[in-house]
Q: What sequence folds into this?
């Protein structure tokens, strides 16, 4: 996560999910009878025209009968299926594994509360479409990370290295507009660095913050923010705020609006454009800060062991799952032993370089690591919970002033 690179997790990470026994037949195909029996009355949004992104709301049964049974190209997209299950008292069919539990949007106590959730809703989705349906070229909202678990069939992803999305600007539509389908421009794929990834059933793909992509698609998806990409989200807000100020400079120069009114205009544009603004961002940071202050001992060198124990008791982000099983901590902070983590990662991941925290090698080879290095390790993607206070103390005053 800290390296902000895509990564593919093998199906060993999802093999124990309930979805495998409930939604799939023995041959790996979808058990549509079960799905209809459980979710037939759920309302869902369906893209009925891929050229215009025209969307219609219908029941899940209507979608299955009209599009899946008849093999028509209707794409069920951005369906808040997980929240519907929660609201209807139905159990979730999957459980986040450790890395994916570092999620400030979808894995907090306020996630399912429209009143307390800073975003007003969760960012957990289900996507479903017959062969040939696909998602147009895009970058995920808010500068967030995302992950997608493929349930059936093969899914093809097209990734463009960060910064090279400029190759796919639609010159007919002006700046900041991109073509819908980059497959139409395969002539510039090599120059732009496009690379293709095939995702098999049961595999989970991690999509970095700010990386443009396009995919062909039943999959589960989360868009999420945590300490590893919160600064990227903040930087995106600053960048887009400057763009907005240029776009409305004529309005500002009229001197008919107060500073507060101008700020509200900018905030409204940011929310429409990015699904997040400084007010929402600040609310999120405050909630995380208050939540973590109850359980984390801000790296007090005298009782780092107690801090880990506290987190083990709370288990807010499943940090103890790895700390208990795959590493051991002596009473003295200099005795951190991570020798058991690497074999676990080698056994369960496709690309070690994308998963092992960048400070792992230093920790493994240094028996007398200092407290700073421990904090650096705890800042890694495995122990991301510890980073929030450090980030908050450094950024919060700046954020509030925006």
A:
């Amino acid at each position: 996560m800290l390296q902000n690179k895509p990564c593919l997790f093998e199906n060993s990470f999802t093999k124990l999910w309930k979805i495998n026994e409930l939604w799939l037949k023995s041959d790996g195909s979808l058990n549509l009878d079960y799905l209809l029996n459980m979710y037939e009355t759920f309302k869902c949004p369906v893209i009925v025209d891929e050229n215009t992104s025209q969307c219609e709301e219908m029941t899940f049964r209507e979608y299955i009968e009209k599009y899946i049974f008849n093999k028509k190209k209707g794409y069920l997209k951005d369906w808040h299926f997980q929240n519907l299950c929660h609201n209807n008292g139905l159990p979730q069919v999957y459980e986040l594994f450790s890395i994916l539990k570092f999620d400030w949007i979808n894995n907090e106590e306020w996630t399912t509360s429209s009143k307390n959730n800073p975003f007003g809703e969760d960012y957990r989705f289900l996507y479903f479409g017959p062969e040939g349906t696909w998602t147009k070229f895009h970058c995920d909202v808010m500068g967030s990370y995302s992950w997608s678990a493929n349930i059936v069939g093969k899914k093809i992803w097209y990734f463009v290295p960060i910064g090279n999305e400029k190759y796919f600007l639609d010159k007919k539509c002006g700046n900041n507009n991109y073509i819908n389908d980059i497959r139409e421009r395969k002539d510039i794929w090599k120059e732009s660095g496009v690379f293709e990834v095939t995702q098999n059933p049961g595999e989970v793909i991690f999509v970095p913050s700010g990386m443009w992509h396009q995919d062909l698609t039943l999959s589960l998806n989360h868009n999420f923010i945590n300490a590893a990409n919160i600064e990227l989200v903040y930087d995106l807000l600053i960048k887009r705020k400057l763009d907005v100020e240029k776009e409305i400079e004529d309005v500002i120069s009229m001197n008919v609006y107060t500073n507060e009114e101008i700020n509200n205009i900018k905030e409204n544009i940011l929310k429409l454009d990015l699904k997040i603004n400084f007010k929402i961002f600040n609310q999120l940071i405050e909630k995380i800060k208050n939540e973590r202050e109850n359980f984390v001992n801000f790296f007090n060198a005298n009782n780092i062991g107690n801090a880990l124990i506290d987190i083990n008791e709370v288990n807010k982000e499943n940090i103890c799952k790895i700390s208990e099983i795959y590493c051991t901590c002596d009473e003295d902070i200099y005795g951190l032993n991570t020798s058991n983590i690497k074999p676990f990662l080698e056994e369960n991941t496709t690309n070690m370089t994308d998963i092992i925290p960048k400070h792992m090698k230093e920790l493994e080879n240094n028996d007398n690591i200092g407290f700073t290095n421990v904090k650096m390790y705890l800042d890694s993607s495995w122990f991301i919970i510890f980073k929030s206070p450090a980030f908050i103390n450094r950024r919060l005053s700046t954020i509030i002033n925006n």
User: Anything to note?
Assistant: The chain has three domains: 7-224, 230-276, 304-392.
